């Protein structure tokens, strides 16, 4: 039962169906298809609020390199069109904002420990 914090600005995107996945660092107890994802805002504060329960239907290994502006999905390079769609459906205005977000993490984490957790099938990737 993974509890995942989300930013307030993602709530209307999830409600509208624009955002149907999230990218997270793998955990000590790995994510598993069939689990429910519990999405909260203001986690770890007195204002914490449950927002959504979403089924974890698909999990993909993803590698993000914010320096080279590249993304690998299951070890395969994504096209720029796919990267732009990934960024949009992950809640970013454009792929530049997406890559800026990942600059805060070490390249080791970005290249090896990230998972794309989807509650709907990301058809734009295939």
How would you sum up this structure, described in words?
- With 126 residues, the chain is α+β, with helices and mostly antiparallel strands.
- The chain has one domain: Hypothetical protein (Archaeosine Trna-guanine Transglycosylase, Chain: A, domain 4), CATH 2.30.130.
- It has 4 helices and 8 strands; from the N terminus they run βαββββββαααβ.
- The chain has a 5-stranded antiparallel β-sheet with strand order 2-8-5-6-7. Strands 1-3-4 form a 3-stranded mixed β-sheet, with no helix packed on it.
- A hairpin with a 7-residue loop joins strand 3 and strand 4.
- The longest helix has 10 residues, at 80-89.
- The radius of gyration is 14 Å and the shape is globular.
- The model has no long low-confidence stretch (mean pLDDT 95).
Secondary-structure topology with pairs:
Elements: E1 3-5, H1 11-16, E2 21-25, E3 36-41, E4 49-55, E5 58-65, E6 70-73, E7 76-77, H2 80-89, H3 95-102, H4 107-112, E8 114-118
Parallel strand pairs: 1-3
Antiparallel strand pairs: 2-8, 3-4, 5-6, 5-8, 6-7
Overall CATH architecture: Roll
Calculate Rg over CA atoms. Answer: 14 Å
Q: Estimate percent helicity.
A: 10-25%
Uncertain parts: none
**Main sheet specs:** 5 strands, antiparallel
Instruction: Determine the mean pLDDT.
Output: 95
Cα(first) to Cα(last) distance is 28 Å
